[in-house]
Amino acid sequence: MNELSHPLPVRRPFVLSGGGARGYAHLGVLKAFAERNIFPEAIAATSAGSIAAAFICDGYTTDEVREIFQRHKLGLSMQWRNWRAGFLSLKKVAEVLEKTLRHQTFDALDIPLYVTATNFVTGDQTIFQEGAIIPAVLAASSVPLLFQPILINDAYYVDGGLSGNLPIEPLLADFKQIIGVHVNPLTPYNPAGGFLANVERTLHLAIRESVLKNKLRCSQFIEPTGLGQFGMFEFNKLENIYNIGYDYTKNILQEQPVS
Asked: Which residue intervals define the domain PNPLA in the entry (predicted)?
């Protein structure tokens, strides 16, 4: 075992941000922590982070989750095509979750999971921690204008990033030494970036203040800078995204080991 690894497993609470395709970097980040014998004791997550978190809290390893993505070609099903196709669909994501999750309710999970979505009527952050997992994950991942809102218990919900893209709030009362993982580094503005790039940047700027506030509440904050080169719909680059998350975190943990 690496001399920087803990001799016994260490459990820490994690908060995982949204980020579209960049959310695949969460698996690389968690893999690097696992190699240091550090594992989640609870996860709060939204949007793409909640997809990864659902599998991890259900007892899957990061390698197993990668295999699921590859076997079901999940990334290809979420790639951006064109405006004429109308709304993008999370149907394939729902199907894969239904087929592969061992437990489909929050209370049956091995590790506590908190999924946040945004109430599309009030704009408030809603924390899902009981009942069915899959509708909550779909709601947390439904970017407005691109995906249709998800109806849960007579209320409509959309992407949780709008009300907090680093949703640490569910962890604050019961957990300490929270590790934050944010996969949306702000990159220099490029006037030639195009329409989707400008949409993404607008969303990032709109939610940046809450992310910076919650960053200060984390004992350790991971934000792989290299992810800025990827757009939220570049699902054909998942392996590159994973490797950046893994390599960046591995280096950080060598320089700043978790005590």
From this structure: 14-172
